[in-house]
């Protein structure tokens, strides 16, 4: 096959060839980044959280009665809620908390050791540490893995409005940021005395895994009308049974509450990534449409230009070219166009990736993904070209050599 002659043939129709090459490069660039986005989203949904996300139920609720402004009344209702929920069959632990893990926003504040307040200038993540206000049951409910010290107890609870620092537990990454490999037990911080260190859990998926700084404080009754959640650790296999009983159980204690949703921690995680997943699905849909349009364009490109070359093809047939030679000629011409399109598509993919990375978290493309996307493009183009190529190879020499 004379590649030089094929290039000359393509140059004779450089405008339409150039448009097809541009379309191929855009399709390849979009396909590569769509696959990256889909893979990134799946990886995020399957990453380790340090939590039993399948068997932890979240109850999102808010009081609607002004009676809750009475602290004693509020405490009595919450205590009864937790008591009744703990009695449900299949519930292994129940607690309340002011915010959820696997969330970007929430109650944040700076955190430092009293002997080294300047450390927050060195580590920006110490300025936005997540503060979890709960009760003594949170460690059991979330199955937090204790690495050092002890969990919080009933005796650690601080009363409403108390300003004196109490006892707290912190995540392991926060401990390492402040004290390295030294023990953190008994250390005094601007938010309390450390009595325990727990293994990291996913608090904010948008920051590095070694910066999951969290503080757990036993002040469950301090904030009454802020957003509040009940957490239930459920026996595996009993999640749906327990979920169906939660609403009636809570409203039987006091009916003046709005219960927004009852979901598992796994569903909460999917909600967090729903925009990423939706964007990935949109990009993949666009890729499918682009591949379809590219295939149609390839078919039209081949059909039109082959019809213009009937006389030339007929001469080749008359000189002894076989059907498979004509078929190979047509396919090679399109493979050459697709090679040029994929080469340009690599630069297009890098450009798309840099542009999209300004707005969303996106991994960099690798050579294997480029090869995979190129193979998909080549297969789609070959299938689209095959029909006009077969028709052309079946033209008898006596007809093909007529003046068109």
pLDDT < 50 runs, ≥5 residues: none
Radius of gyration from CA coordinates: 32 Å
Range of strand content: 5-15%
Instruction: Count all strands and give the number.
Output: 11
Please summarize what this structure is.
The protein is an alpha+beta fold and 404 residues long.
Structure notes:
Helices cover 51% and strands 15% of the residues. The radius of gyration is 32 Å and the shape is elongated. With 404 residues, the chain is an alpha+beta fold. It starts with a helix and ends with a helix. 32% of the residues are buried. The strands form two sheets. Strands 3, 4, 5, 6, 7, 8 and 9 form a seven-stranded mixed sheet that branches. The chain has 13 helices and eleven strands. It folds into two domains: 3-46 and 274-400, no CATH class; 53-265, no CATH class.
Brief descriptors of the model:
single chain; 404 residues; alpha+beta; four-stranded antiparallel β-sheet; elongated
Draw up the topology in text.
Elements: H1 3-11, H2 14-46, E1 56-63, H3 71-86, E2 91-97, E3 108-109, H4 119-122, E4 129-133, H5 138-141, E5 146-149, E6 167-171, H6 172-179, E7 188-189, E8 192-198, E9 214-217, E10 228-234, H7 239-253, E11 257-264, H8 265-272, H9 274-308, H10 310-318, H11 323-357, H12 367-393, H13 397-400
Helix pairs in contact: 2-9, 2-11, 2-12, 3-7, 9-12, 11-12
Subcellular location: Cell membrane
Protein name: ABC3 transporter permease C-terminal domain-containing protein
Domain ABC3 transporter permease C-terminal: 287-397
């Amino acid at each position: 096959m004379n590649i030089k002659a094929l290039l000359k043939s393509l140059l004779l129709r450089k405008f339409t060839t150039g448009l097809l090459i541009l379309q191929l490069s855009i399709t390849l660039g979009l396909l590569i980044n769509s696959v990256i986005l889909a893979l990134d989203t799946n990886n995020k949904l399957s990453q380790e959280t340090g939590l039993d996300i399948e068997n932890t139920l979240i109850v999102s609720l808010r009081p609607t009665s002004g009676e809750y402004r009475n602290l004693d009344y509020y405490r009595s209702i919450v205590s009864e809620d937790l008591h009744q929920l703990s009695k449900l069959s299949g519930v292994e632990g129940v607690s309340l908390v002011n915010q959820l893990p696997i969330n970007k926003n929430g109650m944040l504040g700076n955190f430092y050791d009293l002997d080294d307040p300047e450390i927050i200038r060195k580590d920006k993540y110490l300025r936005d540490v997540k503060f979890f206000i709960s009760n003594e049951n949170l460690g059991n409910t979330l199955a937090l893995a204790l690495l050092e010290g002890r969990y919080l107890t009933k005796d650690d609870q601080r009363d409403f409005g108390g300003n004196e620092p109490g006892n707290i537990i912190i995540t392991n990454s926060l401990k390492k940021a402040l004290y390295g490999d030294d023990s953190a037990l008994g250390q005094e911080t601007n938010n309390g005395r450390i009595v325990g260190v727990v293994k990291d859990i996913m608090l904010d998926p948008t920051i590095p895994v070694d910066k999951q700084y969290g503080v757990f404080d036993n002040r469950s009754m301090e904030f009454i009308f802020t957003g509040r959640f009940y957490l239930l650790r459920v026996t595996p296999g009993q999640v749906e049974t327990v979920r169906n009983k939660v609403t009636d159980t809570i409203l039987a204690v006091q009916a003046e509450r709005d219960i927004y949703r009852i979901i598992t921690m796994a569903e909460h995680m999917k909600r967090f990534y729903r925009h990423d997943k939706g964007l990935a699905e949109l990009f993949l849909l666009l890729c499918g449409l682009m591949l379809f349009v590219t295939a149609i364009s390839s078919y039209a490109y081949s059909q039109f230009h082959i019809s213009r070359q009937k006389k030339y093809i007929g001469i080749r047939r008359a000189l002894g070219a076989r059907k498979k030679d004509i078929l190979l000629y047509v396919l090679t011409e399109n493979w050459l166009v697709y090679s040029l399109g994929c080469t340009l598509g690599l630069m297009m993919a890098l450009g798309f990736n840099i542009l999209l990375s300004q707005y969303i978290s996106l991994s960099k493309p690798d050579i294997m993904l480029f090869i995979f996307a190129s193979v998909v493009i080549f297969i789609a183009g070959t299938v689209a070209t095959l029909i006009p190529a077969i028709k052309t190879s079946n033209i008898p020499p006596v007809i093909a050599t007529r003046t068109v």
